[in-house]
Sequence to fold (525 residues):
Amino acid sequence: MNNLPINTVDTAFVLLSAALVMLMTPGLALFYGGMVRKKNILSVLIQCFAAMCVLNVWWILIGYSLSFCPAKGFWGGLDWMGLKGVGYAALPDYSSTIPNRVFMIFQGMFAVITPALIIGAFAERMKFSAYIIFTLLWATFVYAPVCHWVWGSGGWLKQMGVLDFAGGIVVHATAGVAALITTIVIGKRKNLFHSPAPHNLPLVVLGTGLLWFGWFGFNAGSALAVNAVAVNAFITTNTAAAAAGLSWVLLEWIRNGRPTVFGIVTGCVAGLATITPGAGYVSVGSSVIIGIFASILCFIAVAIIKPRYGYDDSLDVFGVHGVGGILGVICVGLFASKAVNPGGADGLFYGNPKLLVTQLTGVLAAVLYTAAVTFVIYKLINVFLGVRIGEQDESIGLDLAQHRENAYTLLE
Amino acid sequence: MKLIVAIIQPYRLEEVKKALYAEEVHLITVSEVLGHGRQKGVTEYYRGVRETGNLLRKVRVEIAVNENFVEPTIKAIMKGAQTGKVGDGKIFIMDLKECVRIRTGERGPEAIG
Fold:
């Protein structure tokens, strides 16, 4: 197995894709940063960069091993701790044309952005020290196992036939559900009279642009080779984002009377999250429908369900990523086609109802596990450290209270 | 008629607003300002470097009221803004000579409320 020829084109493609996915976390930082009130933007930015700094180290020490070391069972174990045995040779379990190390660094970027997505749920009220510990525990006990089940060699959901091309379950459903649990554990923000309260929408737009750009690496790169599946994933990703942005803005235009910037970018991100699990399994035509579905369902979650139940998911992580991710996994069960990807399976609309059942089982298992473990992690941190900052610090804003910095000056 | 100007801690603004509404005072103008009193500013760190003596962010609240609203307004600002710590701010009260409502041209106590 060590003599497999490395394909330099595929390798270059995946390395560049890894760099694209890396850029998504700073993109997310701006996307979220613009959405909070101006006294809290730095706290969001530092949380995103801390995720990059903490989790990239965690990934090479134990994260990659726990997630991807071939093993049956709960997770991958520690045989690859510190990248021991993870070399330049290809590992056919994942790809026979690129080095294991290249796959490792590509996947590392996913492990960084997934916990970072949850930041949007506890934004404006989380203690920074508690955040760091939460991120490490969550990555270790939620991300790594679920990643192993779905993508790892020997993972039980993978063996069951669950299809998740680039992370509908592993990334978006887990982060989204963790976000919902977050809102229950941490409670509402104080002194908030209207939500969302974005202080800088141009930053949100810039962040969305970077996310969309990086998403090509996320989805097309997940093909791990330059081939028809990668090209298909690239196009479905782009198309679903466009269809979703368009349908969101039309929905709110009809319902609220005005097309908004915040609406169109939220729609694009919902479309991107929703196409993620199916990007390499569904046709371009299906991706238009998936994009429209994404906007309708996420719009209902954000604009109708959230106000009705009153949970304070600050930046709609559940409404956009959770709902989008789960919907996307179900859409794979409907729209997947072997004509698009011979390595995949046919979905309900292509004559195979079994895949839909498999997809539902997979996402349900991941959602229940994530919800339970996330809850326990929060409760543990609450006992030792406390998750939430004090009321006065919350009024002052996390930037000054937690970091002694201000993002904006009135006078020089 | 009096013009009441209060300089308060920014993070107390919501409490002050709530207290003013409770006293039926709804006409306020708010602006962000910088300044400091005896405590000479906040300490900030940039890349690990400690800097002190910066001007502090404050909020200035301006309220023009008729005589019978002067004490309730002061009481409300005190209630909302007082924490007992240095930096709670000040309230300045001054006589107001005239007031004109631009839409109608009304003057004096009529125009304020």
Observations:
- Chain B has one domain: 2-112.
- The radius of gyration of chain B is 17 Å.
